[in-house]
Task: inverse folding
């Protein structure tokens, strides 16, 4: 049994981290260009962690996570832009709820239709679906077509650094809630069922798991969080364009998941921070971003195939979990 | 009424008829062996009973209910557990998580813990290794895990697909004595085996499957004395 302390520890850590970052922002110790980056990092972390649910925990390869990001960005963006009769604060909540719901339904419906597909076949279909959504968006009235949706009211208003503090704060809160929910899902019996389907679908069926439904619901939940990330994107950038959601976005997020380790939430978070921040850190090298991705990906795959590195990783993770357990004074 | 009754079952893979109209029954409390060579249709039969494959024709009655249209995930909660061929464990999850998943359809949390203790008592090896990642267990331990996982659903009947396959003689004897224990505890067993000698030793009755047909059936000890069984399956 988990102690209450153990359950709350990560949330306390998240609050502490928030305080530290806030201090760095308010005192302008963190330069403007980095402050600007923080909401993007939060957004991408939600994307990576939710994609990890599908790729790492369910074991299905998706190359179309950006489709649900787009759905969320447009649903949320249009609500923020057009439903001006609703007070702004309420409108943000409505936008998030609606985007999450629509992305959930579309994600679930999509996998329902292609539920017989696995592996490479599913990967290709998800890739196509991403492009399909992008094309559909262009012809829906009110989306701004190819030119995109502009003038979305944004939370980030005011002078520097207030503007960035606001943008970061709400993005951070939503990110923490998203991660918290996803981690709790993974640790529940449903999470165990998801991993069982990944490890062996026949055995999963033999213990009574409805394999198709499990895949559909997991995919829908991942889509839901991508949809929420989409609202963050729309509300932070004030403009969304179909070009913002092409397959490169899906691939970038997939790279974050693979780099961080499939089935490793902490890894996804760290990999996302590194991959989003790295180009800024190496500002001059920004045009080599994709090159860095490629090299990093190859290096990680080679490292992960190396038994000595895997053994090292296992030792480190065992030590870490032992440490966390000692903090919470043991479990079981 | 038999606990499990299969009547005139026909199963196809495309146009190929793998099961050509077999009938057999399992009474409560029995150990029934279904023996046959590689490719005879043993796995296909079990997969059809558990809903992983649809029959083209025929009836499968479990405690009087027809299972033909029942999806696999519903079968478990009716009281039937399946230990699939080839040690299909959840390789990246711990032994403990594998066992917990065996009780996936149960919601009686307290009693699940009791069943877990019962399984640990029966398989002390699994208790020792409960935190280990299942994929790193030895073949015999993985087979025990697959059996323990099936017991976690507290089944009335347990279908086992070649539990002795690829195991060392020591593990084979251990697995068979566990099957006997399972029967003594009141669970009915339908045992599919290529290891006909061992299977016939512990079974009450047996069916011999040959290319989709039941060639012989009867009391297990009588079948051991049968000349064609001796020649084809016992290597005598
Ligand atoms: N998925 C499949 N597709 C086509 N034929 C199959 C499939 N699975 C099994 N078969 C065929 O059905 C027959 C019975 O196979 P199986 O039930 O696995 O036999 P056993 O378990 O007795 O070794 C074999 O001829 C086998 O080749
Ligand atoms: Mg077989």
Result:
């Amino acid at each position: 049994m988990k102690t209450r302390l153990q359950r709350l520890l990560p949330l306390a850590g998240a609050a502490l981290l928030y305080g530290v970052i806030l201090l760095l922002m308010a005192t302008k110790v963190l330069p403007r260009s980095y402050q600007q980056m923080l909401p993007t990092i939060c957004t991408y972390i939600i994307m990576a962690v939710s994609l990890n649910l599908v790729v790492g925990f369910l074991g299905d390869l998706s190359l179309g996570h950006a489709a649900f990001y787009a759905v969320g960005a447009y649903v949320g963006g249009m609500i923020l832009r057009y439903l001006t009769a609703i007070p702004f604060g309420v409108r943000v909540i409505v936008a998030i709820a609606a985007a999450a719901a629509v992305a959930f339904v579309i994600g679930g419906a999509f996998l329902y239709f292609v539920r017989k597909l696995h592996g490479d076949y599913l990967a290709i279909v998800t890739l196509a679906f991403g492009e399909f959504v992008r094309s559909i968006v262009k012809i829906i009235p009110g989306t701004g077509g190819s030119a995109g949706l502009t003038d979305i009211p944004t939370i980030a208003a005011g002078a520097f650094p207030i503007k960035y503090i606001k943008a970061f704060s709400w993005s951070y809160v939503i990110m923490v809630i998203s991660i918290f929910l996803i981690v709790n899902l993974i640790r529940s019996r449903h999470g165990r069922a998801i991993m069982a389907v990944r490890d062996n679908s026949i055995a999963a069926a033999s213990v009574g798991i409805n394999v198709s439904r499990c895949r559909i619901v997991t995919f829908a939940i991942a889509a839901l969080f991508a949809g929420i990330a989409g609202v963050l994107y729309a509300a932070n950038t004030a403009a969304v364009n179909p070009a913002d959601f092409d397959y490169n976005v899906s691939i970038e997020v997939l790279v974050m998941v693979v780099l961080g380790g499939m089935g490793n939430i902490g890894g996804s978070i760290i990999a996302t921070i590194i991959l989003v921040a790295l180009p800024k850190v190496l500002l001059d090298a920004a045009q080599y971003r994709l090159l860095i991705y490629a090299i990093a990906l190859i290096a990680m795959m080679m490292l992960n195939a190396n038994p000595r590195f895997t053994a090292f990783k296992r030792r480190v993770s065992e030590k870490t979990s032992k440490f966390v357990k000692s903090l919470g004074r043991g479990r079981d | 009424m038999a606990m499990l009754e299969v009547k005139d079952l026909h199963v196809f893979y495309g146009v190929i008829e793998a099961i050509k109209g077999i009938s057999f029954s399992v009474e409560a409390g029995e150990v029934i062996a279904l023996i046959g060579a590689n490719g005879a249709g043993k796995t296909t039969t079990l997969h059809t009973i558990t809903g992983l494959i649809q029959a083209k024709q025929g009836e499968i009655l479990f405690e009087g209910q027809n299972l033909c249209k029942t999806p696999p995930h519903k079968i478990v909660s009716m009281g039937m557990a399946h230990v699939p061929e080839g040690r299909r464990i959840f390789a990246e999850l711990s032994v403990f998580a594998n066992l917990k998943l065996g009780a996936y359809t149960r919601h009686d949390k307290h009693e699940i813990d009791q069943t877990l203790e019962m399984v640990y008592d029966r398989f002390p090896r699994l208790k020792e290794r409960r935190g280990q990642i299942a994929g790193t267990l030895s073949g015999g331990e993985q087979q025990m895990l697959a059996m323990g996982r099936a017991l976690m659903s507290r089944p009335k009947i347990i279908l086992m697909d070649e539990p002795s396959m690829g195991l060392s003689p020591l593990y084979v004897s251990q697995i068979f004595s566990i099957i006997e224990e399972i029967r003594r505890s009141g669970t009915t067993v339908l045992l599919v085996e290529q290891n006909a000698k061992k299977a016939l030793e512990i079974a009450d009755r047996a069916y011999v499957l040959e290319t989709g047909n039941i060639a012989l059936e009867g009391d297990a000890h009588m079948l051991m004395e049968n000349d064609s069984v001796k020649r084809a399956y016992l290597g005598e």
